[in-house]
Amino acid sequence: MLRPAAFFVAAIASAIALAGTRKRGFRMGWALVWALSTLAALPVIFPAYLIYCLFLSKARASVSSASNELAASSVLNEPVLTAQNRRTIGFRFLLPLTYLLVVCTAGAIFFYRNWHSVDSHLARANTARLMSKPEQTIAEYRQALAIEDNPHSHNLLGMELVQLGRWQEALVEFQAAEKGREPDPVLPYNLGASLEVTGQMAEADAVFYTFLESSFCAALPIDSKCVDAKRRVTSQREKASR
What we know:
The protein is mainly α. The chain contains 13 helices and no strands. The protein has helices spanning 2-23, 28-40, 42-65, 68-73, 83-115, 118-130, 134-147, 151-163, 167-179, 187-197, 201-212, 215-218, 224-241. Helix 1 (2-23) runs antiparallel to helix 2 (28-40) and helix 2 (28-40) packs across helix 3.
């Protein structure tokens, strides 16, 4: 929530800069440059804008002090607030308000879409996994898969389900990952284990055998999963031979 809050603070400061520069006689183009620069780099541009306003106010105060007596003697000649002046003042406030509305609407749409994107769901799933929140991790993976059917996400979801002992659900995810050609070399081992736990011994034996023939198990040092897969295959074939 920090990023959206910072954006909307920058949007308000940007609208203030737009209103202030227009009030001080800046042309629309330069006023928008100040406003958009404030939006993009609030910590740098907005303090510079405030310093500029401070020096400009001091300069104008020194000029106006010299004409105070003349202004006091011509009270009767003060300009009357006309309808045209009222429209000008109204436009001066309407422009920054319209600008603020447009910027905030665009920001809200962007952050909404970003929050519900695949990458955001995967990032939150990873955070939840690191914080040992398996149910939240699983929910985020499922939401990511609802947006984009990705074999790697299926594989990650399957591994989380295994951690909770939900082997039948994990089997479905591992099969989807295999169908999508997930390159994880350990996927066949996880798929074989899921098949074995759910009672599909023949299928598990075939998957374990394929896993043992892979380059992953041919590499040295031999991974513990390869050793376990070999033990499972041997045990299954001994049972079948009895």
